[in-house]
């Protein structure tokens, strides 16, 4: 497949971070294949622009380590179970992407060679250069670190130009827009304000790591058709988190 001209896009290499809950549609649990396929088509539309894409998907639709720990499970075990949930989601996304013609690699921080590649940075970079979508699974491979932190870590290692955080709302608000009609959306907000005001963009470790490496975070609505592609083309509604 010929490389596509990327002169029309704002970024050349990005990381898309989505929650596991984004894959369950209107269900209360698990995977909703039509929703997975819809998100895969959004990714393909950006991939077709020539943008190199990494992905990190949470596991909260299957198992969330913190929730298990809160119910009495030993925290480290619960976190490892959460990491395995992210591998299941990554494999589902890989299947959806390859079903529509996008070459994909699932790269796991926990070795499971029968279903995913181990994480080797230079190999992952080469996959991106060959226009394959890299889905990083199993978090950082360590308990006590969220998939938000894993996304920021991998984005830095892959020299991504931005993290795209797909959510249910079209940016960062001063309070929950689902509960408050007078919530105000930020066009831009600083890393320090996110931390000081506890704006729930990502967890504190992820925000601090992005700040220390001057990596912008673009928060947008994953539910808006064409939203991901639109922002890459320089339009759309979103919040930019930067220094």
UniProtKB/TrEMBL annotation:
Catalytic activity field: UMP + ATP = UDP + ADP
Main location: cytoplasm
Gene3D superfamilies hit by this protein: Acetylglutamate kinase-like
Residues the entry annotates as binding UMP: 59, 79, 140-147
EC numbers, comma separated: 2.7.4.22
Coiled-coil zones: none
Pathway(s) it belongs to: Pyrimidine metabolism; CTP biosynthesis via de novo pathway; UDP from UMP (UMPK route): step 1/1
Pfam family, one: AA_kinase
Function, in words: Catalyzes the reversible phosphorylation of UMP to UDP.
Assembly and interaction partners: Homohexamer.
Family: Belongs to the UMP kinase family.
Entry GO MF terms: ATP binding; UMP kinase activity
Keyword Protein biosynthesis in annotation: no
Regulation: Allosterically activated by GTP. Inhibited by UTP.
Domain Aspartate/glutamate/uridylate kinase: 12-221
Residues bound to ATP: 17-20, 60, 64, 167, 173, 176
Organism this protein belongs to: Roseivivax lentus
A Gene Ontology BP annotation from the UniProt entry: 'de novo' CTP biosynthetic process
Protein encoded by which gene: pyrH
HAMAP family linked to this entry: PyrH_B
InterPro entries: AceGlu_kinase-like_sf, Asp/Glu/Uridylate_kinase, Uridylate_kinase, Uridylate_kinase_bac
Protein name as catalogued: Uridylate kinase
A single cellular component GO annotation: cytoplasm
Catalytic EC class: transferase
Keywords in alphabetical order: Allosteric enzyme, ATP-binding, Cytoplasm, Kinase, Nucleotide-binding, Pyrimidine biosynthesis, Transferase
Location(s) in or outside the cell: Cytoplasm
Positions of the UniProt region annotated as Involved in allosteric activation by GTP: 25-30
